[in-house]
Amino acid sequence: MKLTRRPTHSNLGQIESALTEMFGKGPQLSTQARQQIWRRAHGLAHTPTVPQHHPAWFVFYPAFVLLLVFGFLGGYSGVVFASGATVPGEPLYPIARQTETVWLNFTPESRRCEVQLVLLERRVYEAKALLDAGKIVPNDVLQEIELLFIAVADDTTCQSTQTASALPYLISYRAKLAILTHRHPGVSQLGGILEAANSAVIKLGGAPLELIPPDSRRIYQPI
Amino acid sequence: MHPQPDEPALIAQAQRGDMAALSALYERHVNAIYKFMFYRTGDTMAAEDLTAEVFAAMLTAIARYQERGVPFQAWLFRIARARLTDYWRKVQRREKYHDDLTAPDDRPDIPSTDTLEETFDYEPLRQALRYLTPAEAEVITLRFAGDLDNQAIALVIHSNANAVKSKLRRALQKLREIMERQEAFHTQRGEK
């Protein structure tokens, strides 16, 4: 079909054909993308102990105790902390950060890798939320993302028993960073962080990042 | 898409832990699942994450899979539907706390020439699809992006084939009416 005419649809058969054609021309996964998704599926399937949103109770225990303490400060703060969804600039964010520090310190060495992965996911989410809202991401958040990538790659527990589990998460966060870097070329630090993320993935045995061509991310309104 | 004749044998091998069979099943169904996720979320990143989760669930649960009238493809789409529900719940929870910060990934990047042409060709249809109810949109997506027949769709959405058939027909009629109105509007404005 050319740009010069607007298609007409006068019967159901034509509508069906148009739908078949439109959905048929939809996004196709490249071989590399298919392999990446398959590797991530394996990682997720074989690592039920690695938390992303629902950490094991003993990992979450210190946070739970603190949650009770903060409960005195108000139910709302507890709910927001539990959701892990505060972002820089919000009144409860410093409290959540302090809690994370305590949580990390209370976590046994053998479980540190899991907590670091959860924190890394939160930082990437915060950066995305702020950038998409047109706000500035504080430097300490960006630095922490970079440091967490390095820490997970250097963590011996991640390297020994947890390699298979940590890798798909790192690959996923690296992909998110790559898209953020592409979307926000003005944020110069993102390039460096992406390099650190790439090195971390390679260190854990993952494939290096292949740049996504700008036109490959076709975003449509969901239907 | 009808199940291929060798699928039961592949499933049996996969249930015994044969990685080649698991991989073959993945390759056979990944595109349909990904397309379904993409058109339901509108975001490539989320679609990839959710597709990985669907196949992770497949790897975990395939040993317990028994056909019992639910073909493998419909079983996968049932998992996909459940993951999608979790996804919307999560998105809604985040939006609840971040009304001012919510960052839906619906802002199009600068489209390539192909995308521009494609957007022009299908934009009226895409717009019309947004007027469907969620249930109608789901049936349309399962039919055209997931390539499922009425029977399989019925198994996925826990309905029956006749109900799916009439729902699909109603959705198509609704699309036709909307597009006719669009065409009349453009004709009135003198567009060709």
Folded structure, characterized:
- The complex is a heterodimer of chains A (about 220) and B (about 190).
- With about 220 residues, chain A is mostly helical.
- Chain A has helices spanning about 10-25, 30-45, 55-70, 75-85, 95-105, 110-130, 140-155, 155-160, 165-185, 190-205.
- In chain A, helix 3 packs antiparallel against helix 4.
- The longest helix of chain A has 21 residues, at about 110-130.
- The model of chain A is unreliable at about 1-5, about 50 and about 215-220 (pLDDT under 50).
- Chain B is mainly α.
- Chain B has helices at about 5-15, 20-40, 45-60, 70-95, 115-130, 135-145, 150-155, 160-190.
- Chain B is elongated, with a radius of gyration of 19 Å.
- Mean pLDDT of chain B is about 80; it is low at about 100-120.
- At the A-B interface, helix 1, helix 2, helix 6 and helix 9 of A face helix 2, helix 3, helix 4, helix 5 and helix 6 of B.
